Amino acid sequence: MPTQEDDSRDPDLLNVLKADLKYRHNKPGNVYLGLVHRLDRPVGGVMVFAKTSKAASRLSDAVRTRQLDKTYVAVVHGKPPQPSATLRHFLWKDTRTNTVSVVREGQQDAKEAVLDYKLLGSQDGLSLIQIKLHTGRPHQIRVQLAAIGCTLYGDQRYGSAVNKPGQQLALWATALAFEHPTLKETLRFRSLPPMQRPWSEFTLPEL
User: Fold this and answer.
1) Which of 103, 112, 120, 173 could covalently link to 107 via disulfide, CB atoms 3.0 to 4.6 Å apart?
2) CA nearest neighbour of 89 among 119, 134, 44
3) Which residue ranges of the chain lie beneath pLDDT 70?
4) What is the pTM of this model?
């Protein structure tokens, strides 16, 4: 489901969680829930929401200052050129088509995107990759990996030439770590993708 309401009018995570909080805590009126970050609709995994405006402000600052530690795993076509590397690209979003492309530095409205990747395994033309995000640009992982010749499995938008309709995007947010906005303790949350193809073709890293 989408992270927040979109043109599809399908149930979205933000409003579903608000309704759940209202029911569980028997709260009258509207329930506050702050959206701190997003996942693309086809992507699964762990997310954090803020139950107070103070928490939302502090967690949003953590995102902005790159103190929210996010780890993903992905299955891609092919094999990256190096076993591990830092990718830096400038990305530009076409809001008319909701697509993102790699452009030259200095292009108007382009934003820098940075991630680290590590190859975890390869077989039968596919590779399992672990990704650490340093920036949170729209479609960032999908576009940056496609730019080095490693289109994500199931990505219809950026890899229709190698993916079949109906395949699910193989990208999962496996770990999230941040400092609690009031207790100042480091919190870590983990999630594994479902053990079905293509995930089942690999041994996933211990969390």
Assistant:
1) 103
2) 134
3) 207
4) 0.90
